[in-house]
Design a protein that fits this description.
mainly alpha, 21 helices, about 5% strand
Length: about 475
């Protein structure tokens, strides 16, 4: 194994603090400028119904796990802008935990490079501070991994037990943290401690994690049962589309181009060092990839579970590339070598900026779509002015529903094409629910799932909601 290249602790933590501060400033800007996303709208609709006394899972369907919905319920009086600010510490915690874990496994320079790559990854910049469950869950899971790594090195049993409890809590917040458990167990059984103590540590950690899950199930058993039953029905009626899942992951890797390339370079250098502990991170990344591949329609945000392992290996790979370039170009100083180094940094930032824009505009296919994305407040005002307040309004974009302060029927809060294809709801049942619920309007914005409706249902809408208003491809059908 290669020898780690340490920095003085003050230099490392000084560099880490600067990276965290820079990321915080970028996220503060993003929190107040990025439009409300579709998935954020789903979570906020669930929170709104919980404020009205409805039970999530039983009365309001959601794919979010109980710890996340419970936390949203606790924050029910906080406006959207303030709520986004409360999600920022989780992204900082994920950067911090990733950096310290990378430092333990690959040294200080690689750790700082890993934090830099993660902090500047386009998808992380776009979604780290949004009201979503994956980044908070990953931040807690990575902190659990860091505590387990430190407990194995220092024999701190209470850190070990707390790590197991923390990981169990992270899984109750986001199912995407599942693949972190094998990493933690591998860190424990491969630690420098005597072999009996390694297995004892792994057993204690596993017992604490199971205890956390049992406690969570005892507190939220009905909710978990309802959610798992819904997932089981989907799996019975839908097959896992490996091609589609691979396309989502490929798209994610393409958006994070530098992270992907540097992780591949890091793996290439690792081939010559079979005993390097970074292989544990590579296995973790492979398990995260496998877990995404067996899911039904994973979202791009779900692929964020790949970010920490890619960043750690990519940070180490960046260090290797930096050493090679330093031999070729010389150290950074004024003159030709300084210009070359500056040019490389400009290329890095330029490509990252184009990838960030590509991610932000990933659903834009023409000028109308771009106008619609930029005019989200105007669309919400259009809906607010042309639909009755305090009445049921079916809107296919939950973000617009939240901004316009319009609610659908509770049981239709997460309506999607997956529901229809998976047998959770038929067109006939949907029409009956809308009629019995007394919904006064139906709004179709720029979403494709309504295209999966049968022709009979579309005819039913036109017959029963004959009055139409249109603004920027958003169509309101009224009685």
């Amino acid at each position: 194994m290669n020898r780690l290249n340490p920095l003085r602790p003050s230099s490392f933590f000084g560099g880490l603090s600067l990276l965290l501060l820079g990321h915080l400033l970028l996220q503060l800007i993003a929190s107040f400028t990025l439009p409300l996303s579709y998935d954020e709208g789903l979570n906020l609709l669930v929170r709104r119904f919980m404020q009205l006394g409805y039970e999530p899972y039983q009365e309001v369907p959601t794919v979010a796990w109980p710890l996340f919905t419970g936390w949203l319920n606790l924050l029910n009086d906080i406006p959207i802008g303030g709520l986004r600010l409360l999600f920022l510490p989780f992204s900082l915690l994920l950067l911090f935990s990733t950096g310290l874990l990378a430092r333990d496994l690959a040294g200080s320079p690689a750790a700082l490079a890993a934090v830099f790559l993660l902090a500047t990854a386009p998808t992380f910049l776009s979604e780290a501070g949004l009201i979503l469950d994956v980044v908070p869950g990953l931040s807690l899971a990575l902190l659990a991994g860091l505590l387990a790594q430190r407990s194995a090195a220092g024999g701190r049993v209470y850190w070990l037990l707390f790590s197991g409890l923390l990981w169990g809590g992270s899984l109750l917040g986001s199912i995407q943290t599942l693949a972190v458990a094998p990493l933690i167990l591998m860190l424990l059984v491969s630690s420098p401690a005597p072999q009996p103590r390694r297995w004892l540590a792994a057993g204690l950690w596993l017992a604490a994690a199971v205890a956390a899950l049992i406690l969570g199930y005892s507190l939220a058993g009905p909710a978990i049962k309802a959610m798992l039953a819904r997932q089981q029905m989907l799996h019975q009626n839908l097959a896992v589309d490996l091609v589609l899942n691979f396309r989502v992951i490929g798209q994610f890797l393409g958006f994070n181009l530098w992270l992907t390339l540097l992780a591949m370079i890091g793996l290439a250098y690792l081939v010559d060092q079979p005993r390097h502990r970074l292989w544990l991170v590579a296995i973790w990344g492979l398990l995260s990839f496998a877990w995404l591949m067996v899911q039904l329609s994973p979202r791009l945000i779900d692929a964020a579970s790949l970010l920490p392992p890619l960043a750690i290996i990519g940070g180490w790979g960046l260090g290797q590339v930096g050493q090679q370039l330093q031999r070729l170009l010389g150290p950074v100083r004024w003159g030709p070598s300084g210009l070359l180094w500056s040019g490389l940094v400009i290329v890095f930032l330029g490509v990252n900026w184009t990838r960030f824009n590509a991610y932000y505009l990933r659903e834009v296919d023409n000028q109308d779509s771009l106008t619609q994305l930029e005019a989200q407040p105007a669309l919400a005002e259009f809906i607010d002015q042309n639909t009755p307040a305090e009445e049921c309004v079916i809107i296919d974009d939950p973000a617009l529903a939240v901004l316009a302060d319009r609610l659908p029927l509770p049981q239709l809060a997460g309506l999607s094409s997956q529901w229809l294809a998976g047998g959770l709801l038929t067109d006939r049942e949907l029409a009956q629910m809308i009629a019995e619920g007394g919904c006064r309007a139906i709004v179709f914005s720029n979403r494709d799932y309504h295209l999966s409706f049968a022709e009979a249902f579309n005819s039913w809408i036109i017959t029963n909601y004959p009055h139409q208003r249109v603004f920027l491809r958003t169509r309101i059908y009224q009685q």
